[in-house]
Write a structure and sequence with these properties.
The complex is a heterodimer of chains A (276) and B (649). Chain A has 276 residues and is of the alpha/beta class. Chain A is built from 11 helices and 10 strands. In chain A, strands 6-7-8-3-9-10 form a 6-stranded mixed sheet, with helices on both faces. Among the domains of chain B are: 273 residues, ANL, N-terminal domain (Rossmann fold, 3-Layer(aba) Sandwich), CATH 3.40.50.12780; 178 residues, GMP Synthetase, Chain A, domain 3, CATH 3.30.300.30. The longest helix of chain B is centred in the middle third of the chain and has 22 residues. The radius of gyration of chain B is 26 Å and the shape is globular. The chains are: A alpha/beta (276), B alpha/beta (649).
């Protein structure tokens, strides 16, 4: 069902232009540019250390690029912070799950609503009047996400007691609770079994389809990338080496070289089969 | 007045008129229980029925219903019945092949389904079921880009229905008035251990009279609460939730999802409850596992008071005399252990809890009764609208299924088979007059296919399927299910398959219970990589051996069956699975199929080999095929001699 439907894509939502980043002498990213269109699912792939996570970290303001610009929804931000990014509609999940292990699933997802809370701290503490009404509205939103991701059974379970695959789903739930326009997923299927991966793929497609959320994801499982993504951006040593539809990227000589080292005609065919 | 309430739609309209504001159904939506009153349900059913009629649904036509227990699917059932149609609920996890067979056989044109998953299945079956012209779905998620010609949203059909109703004001009432009590009210497919499933046609009269009898027997009123959590395609859910609820006017609640049933149980607190033995077993296993992790004081209290409960709990429940001291101890136990435990299990308000389907272990059975839960066994089948025998309050015997239900006649044939005649005995099998003739005599006696007899108190005892009762070479009676049940009563053993008919001695295949044995192994620091690995561990094999030996000791006390002790057994390298066709959907072992599939292993049991390498094809849940390789060990079990004449019961 993941057939690309280009007519569903809107204008450019995110534009990364000539972005560079270095840690000391190590160049993590070098003049990377790409665009993500509204409602697109864009996968970022590349060997270890290619700069994929750094790129996500720049998009949501954890790192500041040394040069280059990021525009989100037509607004170019100079000094982006994670909080500003979240407020403007960017939510993300992490490679190593970053949840509050001792808190229940419900409370964890509720934290995703933090920026949507308007009542003052005091009013929330007293839990009276508008604060109570707001809390009920927020809870309803959270319940919709719980329903959507089918985690009703673990609503009250502390996150630390859940299996890994479910924790990943809770993290996605928290990101969704923020009602983002852009969702950044850092290896959403890492460490999952086949069935969990299938579920997660289904959820990502549904999120994209039902809510029109744009998705940028980092993923190593090529089968997943080929199934999910409308477009694939390939990084190697901090440089963008390819950018196109899954089919285009699969046949790209440079991509094959990056993954396998050399690119003779025979390798190319073999790599095409391996990547596919 | 009561004479006219002989079809489901009439009952529904009567409730809407007489107890319109009382709760009829509940479901949890976005974490909050939503209640529908009888009036609201009647209104929703009317809208859907009118919508179906507007789409061309005709009297006598079948309506396929697929999905979890949802009020809206029950309304679909009622809507079909209102129009004189026949609802056919299907097991939603049924293989596409099985589903296709049923849909094609019934020439289904209309289906009401829960969500995308079922829509996908039906679309896949379109070529096989050319008659299908309308799929009505409830949850629109993921369906946005589907071809629209076949699909309709439930709400839209109801909207059309309301318009149709406005244009034809008398239509609905006329449709209901046209219904006869002898019309087929529902068609339920039996899982069937061989061949294609058979459609059992039950009339309004079958169900309503049986339901009424059941309600009278247990004094069920409009105040009961039930949780409708078992498959809608199963006769039990239809009777316990839908039929008895429609007859008495009580409320049924639908769980949020199949995973949340324990939580929903606690929140709803049903007063009338049915569960197959395995559910009770799982609950007990969880309690036991959690008790082992509890603090020392709690463990001590639990052990102490469970002793008291075992000694006097059942007597108290049965109204037998108990000393003042024991009474006081039990009351104290109730305060600190039993009541909290019942609460955790969601059994706080239970008045009547039933179990059936498979034999329930005596220890398990007594556990619940000693806690004060009025757990009772019953006996019945799809073809008898469930109720044949029920254990009577105050005289519950663990090894019988009780006395006859209201208006039920039971006879034991010369071959030892149980025959039943009752108001609930089915009309016929769908499009299968031959099978109907085999199962039902012209006088209305239904052949249950079970072997059994009445004991001295007039309580029925079922030992096995009549066709499965066999003989060893030396003529000893061999009742495989009886042996299997005895083995399965041990928490470590999940499934057992016994062999012995026409053989020199009895043998068995066993499946360990991964959860229970896994926990056991963990506490002993035994590492394992999965089912196959764990089941082949020497420690586990020895553990299982103690179970087999205990069963043999038990059998040794039975004059009829002592010759059928298990001489050799093996622990299978894979779990028996319904997806591989080894179990039925209701988790009954398909003995013959297993014997064929694992023929070399069966032969090895009757040779002197100590092990056998095997390779098994398994179907993973995502549909891929895989292979398991293992070395299956075969073990000897010593034969016991009848030792203590005390236990020769």
């Amino acid at each position: 069902m993941a057939s690309p439907r280009p007519e569903r894509l809107g204008g450019v939502l995110l534009e990364v232009k000539d972005v560079s980043l270095a840690f000391g002498g190590v160049k993590a990213l070098h003049q990377v540019s790409f665009q993500v269109r509204e409602r697109e699912i864009c996968a970022i792939i590349g060997p270890n250390g290619a700069g994929k996570s750094s790129l996500l970290n720049i998009i949501n303001g954890v790192y500041q690029p040394m040069s280059g610009t990021i525009s989100f929804a037509g607004v170019q931000r100079r000094a982006m912070t994670p909080r500003k990014a979240a407020a403007s509609g960017i939510a993300r999940t992490f490679q190593n799950i970053a949840l509050f292990k001792g808190m229940s699933v419900l409370d964890n997802i509720m934290t995703g609503r933090d920026l949507k809370m308007h009542a003052s701290l005091l009013a929330q503490a007293v839990y009276w009047g508008p604060a109570q009404r707001e809390d009920i509205a927020q809870r309803r939103k959270v319940e919709e996400v719980i329903d959507f991701l089918q985690i009703q059974a673990v609503r009250k379970t502390p996150v630390g007691r859940l299996p890994y695959g479910l924790q990943k789903r809770v993290e996605l739930a928290r990101a969704l609770a923020a009602e983002p326009r852009l969702l950044l997923l850092d290896e959403p299927m890492a460490g999952m079994n086949v069935e969990e991966k299938q579920d997660m793929c289904r959820f990502i497609l549904d999120v994209n389809d039902e809510f029109g959320v744009t998705v940028v994801l980092i993923e190593h499982d090529m089968a997943v990338v080929m199934d999910l993504a409308d477009r694939v951006v390939v990084l190697d040593y901090g440089r963008k080496i390819a950018d196109g539809t899954p089919d285009e990227v699969r046949g790209d000589t440079e991509v094959i070289a990056a993954y396998l080292g050399v690119a003779t005609e025979a390798d190319r065919r073999a790599a095409g089969a391996a990547v596919g | 007045m009561a004479g006219q309430l002989d079809t489901f739609p009439r009952l529904l309209l009567d409730h809407a008129a007489h107890r319109g504001g009382r709760p009829a159904m509940r479901e949890k939506d976005l974490g909050i229980w939503q209640t529908y009153s009888w009036r609201q349900v009647a209104d929703q059913v009317r809208a859907l029925a009118s919508g179906l009629a507007a789409l061309g649904f005709r009297r006598g036509e079948h309506l396929a219903i697929i999905g979890d227990n949802r009020p809206r699917l029950y309304w679909a059932m009622a809507a079909a019945q209102s129009l004189g149609g026949i609802p056919v609920p299907l097991y939603q996890d049924a293989a596409t092949e099985e589903m296709g067979f049923v849909l094609a056989e019934t020439d289904v044109r209309f289906a009401v389904v829960e969500d995308q998953e079922q829509v996908d299945k039906l679309l896949e079956l379109r070529a096989r079921v050319p008659s299908l012209q309308c799929i009505i779905y409830d949850d629109a998620r993921g369906l946005r880009h589907y071809p629209a010609e076949l699909l309709r949203h439930y709400d839209d059909v109801q909207k059309e229905g309301r318009a149709f109703d406005a244009a034809h004001p008398g239509f609905f009432a006329d449709a209901v008035a046209e219904g006869r009590s002898g019309d087929v009210a529902i068609m339920l497919y039996t899982s069937g251990t061989t061949g294609h499933p058979k459609g059992v046609m039950l009339t309004h009269d079958n169900l309503i009279r049986t339901g009424r009898g059941g309600n009278e027997r247990e004094h069920l009123t409009e105040d009961e609460e039930v949780l409708a959590y078992l498959p809608m395609a199963w006769v039990g859910d239809n009777l316990f939730s839908y039929t008895q609820g429609q007859v008495a006017g009580f409320c049924m609640s639908c769980p949020e999802s199949s995973d949340t049933v324990p939580t929903d149980m606690r929140e709803i607190g049903p007063t009338y409850f049915f569960a197959p033995p395995r559910v009770y077993e799982n609950l007990l296993t969880q309690v036991s596992i959690r008790m082992e992790d509890a603090s020392r004081l709690k463990r001590w209290l639990y052990a102490k008071f469970m002793d008291v409960a075992r000694r006097v709990g059942t007597k108290l429940l049965d109204g037998q005399p108990v000393s003042f001291l024991d009474r006081s101890l039990y009351a104290l136990g109730d305060l600190v252990i039993y009541a909290p435990l019942r609460n955790v299990l969601g059994l706080s308000r239970i008045r009547v809890a039933y179990t059936a389907g498979e034999a329930i272990g005596p220890d398990l059975f007594r556990f619940y009764r000693s806690l004060g839960v009025n757990l009772k066994q019953l006996y019945g089948s799809t073809e008898t609208s469930v109720f044949v025998c029920i254990q009577p309050d105050g005289a519950v015997k663990a090894d019988t299924v009780g006395t006859r239900a209201k208006d039920v006649e039971v006879r034991i044939s010369e071959q030892g088979e149980v025959l039943v005649r009752s108001p609930g005995v089915f009309h016929s099998y769908f499009k299968n007059p031959e099978a109907t003739r085999e199962a039902k005599t012209p006088e209305g006696w239904f052949h249950t296919g079970d072997a059994g007899y009445f004991d001295d108190d007039g309580q029925l005892k079922i030992i096995d399927r009549a066709k499965d009762v066999g003989r060893l070479l030396d003529g000893t009676l061999f009742a495989p299910k009886y042996l299997e049940n005895k083995l399965k009563f041990f928490p470590w053993i999940k499934e057992a398959v016994a062999f012995g008919d026409g053989r020199p001695y009895a043998t068995a295949f066993l499946n360990i219970d991964l959860q229970a044995v896994g926990n056991w192994a963990e506490r002993r620091g035994i590492a394992y990589s999965g089912y196959t690995d764990l089941s082949s561990r020497e420690e586990v094999q020895a553990l299982v051996q103690t179970c087999v030996e205990a069963v043999n000791q038990d059998l040794a006390q039975d004059a009829k069956l002592q010759g059928s002790q298990i001489r050799r057994f093996l622990v299978l390298h894979k779990e028996l699975d319904a997806d591989d066709g080894e179990l039925t959907r209701t988790r009954k072992v398909r003995r013959r199929f297993i014997a064929e599939r694992y023929a070399p292993l069966v032969e090895a049991l009757y040779s002197d080999r100590a092990s056998l390498p095997v390779e098994a094809k398994v179907k993973f849940e995502d549909g891929r095929m895989g292979t398991i390789r293992a070395e299956v060990k075969i073990r000897q079990a010593p034969v016991s001699q009848p030792a203590s004449p005390l236990r020769a019961a």
